[in-house]
């Protein structure tokens, strides 16, 4: 099975950007991981511990560079070129957990690194766990990212971001 469509569409850009080191955030069944490994990328994976237990053996034999539980990302600085996050952000209901995900991504990307975010796209009448482009940008941009590209395809919204320096905000008393 091929990778998610956004990876296929954006891979020419990743090649121009000289992307080599990738984190598959929410690796699940390793579909994107296998695709990226087959294309020559150095791949790290992260997921919840229960999911990692299911796929760790397969990940190791496939050549994954590192297997990390989500909690471990708070203590790492992997200096990655790209983090992919496909259909994970929209299923996290707790806003603090969403902010934690964004902080983990920012911390582990190199300056100027890319963050590929796929979510279920909210349209009129669409269900729970869907997001609009505005909702995504309102959360992601303040976390230290700028928007590079947006692709809407059917039920999927893909937004590609670039890590930028965090700007300290001045507290007003």
Automatic annotation (TrEMBL):
Name recorded for this polypeptide: Methyltransferase domain-containing protein
Q: Please list the GO terms describing molecular function.
A: S-adenosylmethionine-dependent methyltransferase activity
* Domain Methyltransferase type residue range list: 23-116
* Keywords carried by this UniProt record: Methyltransferase, Transferase
CDD domains (UniProt xref): AdoMet_MTases
Q: Cross-referenced InterPro entries, in alphabetical order? A: Methyltransf_11, SAM-dependent_MTases_sf
Q: Which GO terms describe its biological process?
A: methylation
Identify the species of origin: Carboxydocella sporoproducens DSM 16521
- Any Pfam family from its record, for instance, is Methyltransf_11
